[in-house]
Specification:
A six-stranded parallel sheet has the order 2-1-3-4-5-11, sandwiched between helices. A six-stranded mixed sheet has the order 7-6-8-9-10-12. The chain has a domain of 191 residues: Response regulator (Rossmann fold, 3-Layer(aba) Sandwich). The chain has eleven helices and twelve strands. Helix 2 runs parallel beside helix 10 and helix 5 packs parallel to helix 6. The chain is α/β, with parallel strands linked by helices. It starts with 72 loop residues before the first helix and ends in an 11-residue tail after the last helix.
Length: 427
């Protein structure tokens, strides 16, 4: 089963980013990039090297229908490594909606089938989608259904099929098990109903998959970490769930970066289940049996604050980190210690996810055909050079929640144009 990253929880785990936190429309910092501390020379406009320590492969997915080849170079590059990890079921193919137009002139019905609302990212993103869809030209009724606090694939399959019966013009799907929806999505497509997914790529031509490239984000942040460490040292990898596709995608990039540095070593792996509480607990256990010096760490969504708390609790130095998730607690610690602490972070942000997804749906309803079933964008890279734009000076290691972000952090309109046969932009 393919399980989506930060939507996963375990019954015994805390929410990924406990509480809802403040939900502003900005990155949260109100800064001018740097925070006033000395910034490493390599930090500004950081780009991983093409070879040697810090480099990593970014293989373009298979292109059986030749649709990736039609994209501009920037959009092709954004797909680098996206499907190149163990267990990947990703397929990039020609969309069956290339010439699709909805029936009638609207207003149109958009049905939303969403997974569990247990993390700040989930809560913020659903709120953004409701807001953005209701102001999207042509959209009338917006019917949102979730599985509440439950991770229940059977319940969501029933929910999705029930929504299909209401004959919406478009369905928006976010699920922790995309592969379970291959058949249902194709059945909906046979009735002329497109399914747009967010962070849940269903590998069929009837889906329009909107996703961020966690592989590239992980590779870029890990590459930055190698620069911070001078290409030397022991790094502990804080993973999530070995069965989760996003775990494999991110960890593959981390390991490839480390493999290119002869003087760097994977010191071990901890599994935190996308939970601050569980990540802290597992990190404490690991530190108790590994007294050797640690020079760096990597962390997956919803784990970094808990991991750093573990180091603080046992009185060991907090190592520089490559984080995926943009946890407020992690960014707060980083900013408070920016004179002596260096790190990197990246993630899809709720505000930009809501805006981009609503815009894609609006363009489809306006008759702008989708060229391929996969619309992937890169996420913003936060380094010492722009930390002040992302981390509020009031945040601490205990601050819960996920950075809300900026509207154009992900797939801005100029990038979306490349994925459509026409560009009315739903206006």
């Amino acid at each position: 089963m393919r399980v989506l990253g930060w939507t996963v929880t375990l019954a015994a785990s805390a929410a990924l980013a406990a509480g809802c936190g403040a939900s502003s429309s900005t990155g949260g910092g109100g800064g001018s990039g740097a925070t006033g501390a000395k910034v490493p020379a390599f930090a500004a406009n950081f780009t991983p090297p093409a070879s040697g320590c810090g480099s990593f492969a970014a293989k373009t997915p298979a292109d059986p229908d030749g649709v990736i080849a039609t994209l501009p170079k920037a959009q092709q590059a954004a797909l680098g490594g996206y499907a190149d990890y163990q267990g990947s079921t990703v397929k990039v193919v020609k969309s069956r909606w290339a010439t699709w137009k909805p029936n009638g002139s609207g207003p149109f019905h958009v049905a939303v089938s969403w997974g569990q609302l247990v993390s700040d990212f989930q809560v913020q993103t659903v709120a953004q989608l409701k807001q953005q869809l209701k102001t999207t030209k042509g959209v009338g009724q917006v019917d949102v259904r979730t599985t509440g606090s439950n991770l229940d694939i059977a319940q969501q399959l029933q929910q999705y099929n029930a929504l299909v019966q209401t004959k919406p013009d478009v369905i928006l799907l976010e699920t922790p098990s995309p592969d379970s929806f291959d058949g249902p999505v194709q059945k909906a497509a046979a009735q002329g109903i497109p399914t747009v997914t967010l962070l849940s790529p269903v590998p069929v031509d009837g889906a329009v998959n909107v996703d961020s490239n966690n592989y590239l984000a992980a590779g870029q942040t890990a590459s930055y970490l190698t620069k911070v460490l001078g290409g030397k040292g022991n790094v502990v990898l804080v993973r999530a769930l070995a069965t989760a596709s996003i775990d494999s995608q991110i960890a593959t990039a981390w390991k490839r970066v480390l493999a290119g540095c002869p003087q760097m070593k994977n010191a071990g792996e901890v599994f935190g289940a996308f939970s601050e509480a569980q990540a802290k607990s597992e990190m404490l256990k690991w530190l108790g049996t590994h007294p050797q010096k640690l020079d760096g760490l990597t962390a997956m969504p919803g784990e970094s604050s808990g991991v750093l708390q573990a180091f603080k609790q046992v009185g060991r130095p907090v190592p520089p980190a490559a984080e995926i998730g943009l946890d407020k607690g992690f960014l707060g610690y980083w900013r408070a210690n920016d004179a002596s602490y260096d790190a990197a972070s990246s993630s899809l942000t709720p505000v930009s996810a809501g805006r981009a997804t609503a815009e894609i749906i609006g363009r489809m309803l306006a008759g702008d055909g989708v060229k391929l079933n996969t619309i992937v964008g890169e996420t913003p890279l936060v380094t010492d050079a722009n930390l002040g734009d992302w981390a509020d000076s009031s945040w601490t290691l205990q601050t819960p929640g996920t950075v809300s972000g900026h509207p154009d952090d992900f797939l801005p309109a100029k990038d979306l144009d490349a994925f459509f046969t026409t560009t009315s932009k739903g206006q």
